[in-house]
Design a protein that fits this description.
alpha+beta, 191 residues, single chain, 27% helix, seven-stranded antiparallel sheet
Length: 191
């Protein structure tokens, strides 16, 4: 054991590194419960849109591989314009910055569940891949992430009818020992 303890012994983790190093602090562990917590966080965001009167439909799709899932709502769609402080797209900020979201002030949401500004970024950090697709302002926007980091900027990929947010993600097998979702557990939670 080292007898000296100085500033050089202090580790500074930035961005989403703390989530990847200590996932249990954010989702309770990397077992079945923690894995499914990823789904609940994204689902809570969709439910918040519905509970606040902005969405009327939420869909959850467990894909054939059993380890990727899509959650979609017809809410307002996550903003894609540049955030005034970071100058990054608000979509990128929400998925890459801890404690960034629209639920801290009461102007955007009257009620909210989940981790309040942590959930989407935690899911992103713990995913091998994540794709966020937003429909708003007559356009479809998309941003792709790998292990919590943007693969590129948010892109306008075409026209859109209506509004909403769709999140597809695949948990990172370097974090979770088992990445297959339990369909029965998901079904139990939904009904």
């Amino acid at each position: 054991m080292a007898s000296t303890y100085t500033a050089k012994d202090i580790t500074v983790l930035e961005g989403l590194e703390p989530v990847r190093k200590r996932p249990g602090m954010y989702i309770g562990g990397v077992g079945t419960s923690g894995l499914h917590h990823l789904v609940w966080e994204i689902l809570d965001n969709a439910i918040d849109e519905a509970m606040n009167g902005f969405a009327g439909s939420i869909g959850v799709t467990l894909h054939e591989d059993g380890s990727s899932i899509t959650i979609a709502d017809d809410g307002r769609g996550i903003p894609v314009d540049p955030h005034p402080k970071t100058k990054q797209s608000a979509l990128e900020v929400i998925f890459t910055v801890l404690h960034a979201g629209g639920k801290f002030e009461h102007a955007s949401y009257k009620t909210a569940g989940g981790l309040h500004g942590v959930g989407a970024s935690v899911v992103n950090a713990l995913s091998k891949e994540l794709v966020a697709t937003v429909r708003r302002e007559g356009a479809t926007w998309e941003q792709r992430f790998r292990q919590g980091k943007p693969v590129g900027p948010v892109k306008k990929i075409g026209p859109a009818r209506g509004t909403g947010t769709t999140v597809w993600f695949h948990p990172d097998p370097t974090i979770f020992p088992k990445i297959e979702f339990d369909a029965a557990l998901l079904k139990e939670r939904f009904f």
